Amino acid sequence: MRRSNSRIVGLDVHPDSFAGAILEGRDPWKARVLSTSTRVALPLLEKWALGHTTPADVLVMEASGNAFAVAERLRGLKREVVILDSHSAGKVGKTYCATDRVDAIKIARIYLSALSPLVWQPERKDARAAGSLQRLSGGGERRDATQAAN
After folding, report:
1. How far apart are CA 75 and CA 69, in angstroms?
2. DSSP string covering 49-63, please?
3. Which of 5, 21, 25, 137 could form a disulfide with 10 if both were Cys (CB 3.0 to 4.6 A apart)?
């Protein structure tokens, strides 16, 4: 569900850092970039979010390896977090000289334009159950080439 907030925060999240872009306005092409932050160390996520965002903002990121963990940390600060389908978002606005700042702005604009579906995020208890099921079923284990055929 897309809320009618006037501020959207695009986050380009990496394993060890992130970039953020705060946009104001509902039109994806006319939304004004209020501020950007780049190469913020991921351990500073909560401090950055408390200093730059409000509970009324919508924080948006692409699905990635750590997107759900980052989203959970932000929800712990009472922030609304949505995750975009990375396949759809990746098709929008490809650029040859992308930077993290540009990607963060792009993520916010894609959310505003509704050009990418949102990814379902499990509730905390559901995520824990899925992790337990994966461990019990042996999921997530590395296999070498000889095991792959078996």
Report:
1. 10
2. HHHH--TTSEEEEE-
3. 21
**Contact status, residue 88 vs residue 115, Cβ threshold 8 Å:** yes
At 137 the pLDDT is: 46
CB 105 within 8 Å of CB 10: yes
How is the chain split among helix, strand and coil, in percent rounded to 5?
A: 40, 25, 40
Q: Which two tokens stand for residue 24?
A: 């104001």
Cα dihedral sign for 1, 25, 19, 100? positive
Q: Which residues of the chain have pLDDT under 50?
A: 1, 96, 132-150
Domain 7-136 is in which class? alpha beta
Reading the block at residue 69, the tokens are 């963990």
pTM confidence score: 0.77
- Domain limits, the chain: 7-136
pLDDT digits (tens, 9 = 90+) for 19-51: 999 999 999 989 999 999 999 999 999 999 999
Distance CA 117, CA 111 (A): 9
Specify which residues 37 forms β-bridges with: 20
No. of helices (H) and no. of strands (E), the chain: 6, 5
